[in-house]
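User: I'm putting together a teaching handout on how multi-component assemblies are represented. Below are the sequence lines for each component of a complex, exactly as they appear in our records. Could you produce the 3D structure of the whole assembly as structure tokens, so the students can see both representations side by side? Please keep the chain order the same as the input.
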Amino acid sequence: MFEILGIPSTALFGQLLIGLINGSFYALLSLGLAVIFGMLNIINFSHGAQYMLGAFAAYLLLQYSGLGYWPALIVAPVLVGITGMIVERLMLQWLYKLDHLYGLLLTFGLALIIEGVARNYFGSAGLPYTVPESLQGGRNLGFMFLPNYRAWVIVASLAICIGTWFVIERTRLGAYLRAATENPTLVRAFGINVPRMITLTYGFGVALAAFAGVMAAPIYNVSPQMGSELIIVVFAVVVIGGMGSILGAIVTGFGLGVIEGLTKVFFPEASNTVIFIIMAIVLLVRPAGLFGRRG
Amino acid sequence: MRKTLGLAALAATLACGGANAQQVNVKIGVLSDMSSLYSDIGGAGSVVAAKLAIADFTAKNPGVKVELTSGDHQNKPDIGSQKANQWYDVDKVDMIIDTPNSGVALAVSQVTASKNKIFIVSGAAASDLTGPKCNANTIHWTYDTWMLANGTGKALVKTGGDTWFFLTADYAFGHALERDTAAAVEANGGKVVGKVRHPLNTNDFSSFLLQAQASKAKIIGLANAGGDTINAIKSGAEFGIVKGGQKFAGLLVFASDVIALGLPTAQGLTLTETWYWDMNDANRAWTKRWQAERGAAGKFPTMVQAGVYSGVTHYLKAVAALKSAADGKAVVAEMKKTPTDDPLFGKGTVRADGRKLHPAYLFEVKAPSESKYPGDIYKIRATIPAEEAFRPLKEGNCPLVSG
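Assistant: Of course. Below is the structure of the complete assembly, with chains in the same order as your input.
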């Protein structure tokens, strides 16, 4: 055991692992945001509220239909994704030709409504949701005690992130999607149903947020404001990574989770501002973000 | 005949007019956290409690006319003081009550003193409100950090928890609670082996809990409240804190937090409060009324909301006695002169430094098997009499208390 800057190495490695786990949530959420912005050019400010809806859906599924954690991992994102698609069809599709600000305002307003309604019915203290039995307990890694659930969080997020990146960047479907964003008219001329693809993409982005919500429900407080606390940080992550870049969102999400974890060890009072300091620096040096493409 | 009736009606109207001239007008404002992590502790439930107090009082005292307003301070001292200023200057509010969040309460206390109005703090905790920052216009009602520290802190040290690690919310309340609890721990033979400060409204405590585990302290003192406490305890369950032999001390835990955590996670937690809905028939009856008015299923009132009811009741008594709400200092002096008596807190007094005195109770959260109905979450472990529960008058350094 050796010491780095006054902190024992075992403690440091433990914090790094914790940072990776937090980074998984940042990565999942910023992936959804990056997909929506990259493909649809909509700044989805209701992402945090949709994350919260995912967690609430998991709780309600458990309460009213007895569906536990594992089915909820699939059912909740599908349900919330469908509501996202309805929103897109009814409200967002009129805004694509307009300035980004309109999409931002609409989704921000939606977020406020969703949170307010949830708080009205459920209060703010939060709802209980426990870790599923198969994932309870943990193992002692020597330098820290790693709960099994947190290990699952890293594995699942990595899988989803890599899977999504692969679909968008390396498959034909992803190619259609990217083409449709650049030149929808031409892609439609080839007979591809562009509006439906866009709706499904928004639904997918929202489902990603809801999936992160279900993953968060056992370990974070399931409360109406859980999304609004997280979403600001996630936006900073997306900006640092580059607004449209899928890879940027994933890498930056994990990376910033680790940096925040380290800050909590060395200077905990600054742990919720360090990401914004980095964002300011990155924007000064590389305005398009670390992985962003200009234009 | 018509003329007689007309004269009688005129006489009756004049008599009513005479009674109106005796009427006292009062306006009360409930300033609380309506939308964030403390809104179940105070929030809309406090407004309901105030409504009930006003209804009960005006039923017996028709000569007092009370208006109620409410507002959201969003846990920001600047918004809180701006709201207080606006209420006092523009909206003619006479008394502000509730205000969870010590940072906001300290700010509003200053504003109240400068405008000679009244501030009854039910929600906030910092014992500085009756200490160095006391003034003649502020009364600290339901609880404070000293009471929490000496209730929970002393009890835990006496049962063997003599090394402590603090997880502190990095603002006025957290610092005050950590300071008072550290003093109580050390006064009873314990030792503080470490501490870490986290920002208010932190989502993830895993990093801080790791540091707490590494310290090997027997007790991890949670000097935070609301959503922060819930998140810390939830993460603690995951990281096997309790299985590893350490215990959590929830220094400020409300019934709403325990219900949000659920009994399986919260069982065994020791905490100090001054009011619990299931303690006696009067509390239970009031809780039913509160729930009917509140309209949100499954909620139970916290001691903060009960404190709002009690505070409004005593305030209105003082205003009725003085027949005017205008002079803040005079009404507060009257409130300190008169002993308090209400169905929820029973008999008590308000001290010279603005501290209300009533007994405190050490509770333990029940295990799920012991809970027989919704809301049945506490068993009472000890009663701390009013004289011992709060900081002695001389130790507060309050400028109002000479010597």
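A couple of points students might notice: Chain A touches chain B at residues 8, 10-11, 14-15, 18-19, 21-22, 116, 119-121, 123-128, 130-131, 137-138, 144-145, 147, 149-150, 218-221, 223, 225-226, 229-230, 261, 264-265, 268-269, 271-272 (CB under 8 Å). Residues 33 and 181 of chain A are 15 Å apart (CA to CA).
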